[in-house]
Design brief:
Length: 316
């Protein structure tokens, strides 16, 4: 009897031990599973952080901006913000036109002359026009005056190439808006630099641009090189840029940068923002590479030389 009790006690002890072993194993398995899930999550976080760091590094390679003149979030209204700069000698090598040739030089930014809704109408027009073709990479342009539209590695004339279909892309009202906006820009430039607006003329090229992060295939598409508009385009005396999309939400990279002796100063694009400046070498500039999204803008420029004047774009 005692032996039986002892044996019973022994077997219940063994069962107890077995149960403990099983519980221990289950616990170990559970914690191993939890550990592997935890470490996978940690690994994922670490990888994401590494990815973010690489992305930030790559984008920062292009960003040597030392000062932000106007950020995307600011609203410059009702008066333009003006940054005077001493005029370069460039204008002395050209015929002078009193009332127009720059005597005061500098930069100005305003958010109050083009409404965001108007910028949206113009952006849609640019989207429709550029959807007809577009370059293979980098920047694409649509010049409403000459009709030049990037197509692959070249340009086509939209008026000739698309004939009557052009009416599906833009209407008389669209062109009226372009003319209106051009007039407002002319007025603000004349007021800022003390010019007679009737002695300033629209000049070519005047174009819509779309820039994205695809790789440029031709030199035309390399929009990011530092340049002086008066050298690049010849006839320009005053350049303006009307932005049609927002830096930071529609695209990243793509800030406009004035390259001064000791400083790179940026104007961040904002839909409806007009940035304008005298076109000589006092305003050497470049556009940062776009790293994500699409950036739309219109370049509208003025000359003092009537021989380089162009008329506003019209439907054929
Ligand atoms: O789109 C911009 O911000 C500048 C473009 C430019 O520099 C140019 O068209 O000459
Ligand atoms: Fe330029």
């Amino acid at each position: 009897m005692a032996l039986l009790r002892q044996r019973n006690a022994q077997s219940s002890n063994a069962a107890e031990i077995e149960k403990k072993i099983k519980r221990g194993n289950a616990l170990r398995q559970g914690s191993a599973w939890r550990w592997s899930r935890g470490s996978a999550a940690l690994l994922l976080v670490a990888l994401s952080l590494c990815g973010l760091a690489v992305w930030l590094y790559v984008t920062s390679l292009d960003s040597d901006v030392t000062e932000t003149l106007v950020s995307r979030a600011e609203l410059v209204s009702p008066q333009p913000r003006v940054y005077p700069v001493e005029c370069s000698d460039d204008y002395q090598n050209h015929k002078r036109y009193p009332g127009c040739t720059p005597q005061k030089c500098g930069r100005g930014v305003t958010d109050s002359i083009v409404k965001r809704e108007e910028a949206e109408v113009l952006r849609r027009l640019a989207e429709r026009g550029l959807a007809l073709a577009g370059s293979e990479g980098g920047a694409s342009i649509l010049d409403l005056h000459s009709g030049a539209l990037s197509m692959g590695k070249q340009f086509v004339n939209i008026y000739r190439y698309f004939g009557d279909k052009i009416g599906d892309v833009f209407t008389k009202e669209d062109l009226q808006l372009y003319r209106d906006v051009r007039g407002r820009i002319q007025t603000v430039i004349a007021e800022t630099f003390g010019l007679d607006p009737t002695l300033m003329y629209l000049t070519k090229p005047t174009f819509f641009s779309r820039i994205n992060s695809t790789v440029a295939k031709t030199q035309h598409d390399e929009y990011w090189h530092p340049h002086i508009d008066k050298v690049t385009y010849g006839s320009f005396d005053y350049t303006s840029l009307l932005y049609l999309s927002d830096y930071g939400s529609d695209f990243t990279g793509g800030r406009f940068v004035f390259m001064d002796q000791n400083s790179n100063r940026t104007v961040e694009p904002r839909a409806g923002r007009v940035s304008f400046f005298s076109s000589g070498s006092e305003n050497l500039h470049r556009v940062e590479k776009v790293t994500w999204g699409s950036r739309y803008a219109i370049t509208v420029s003025f000359t003092c030389d009537p021989a380089h004047a162009i008329s506003d774009p019209t439907l054929p």
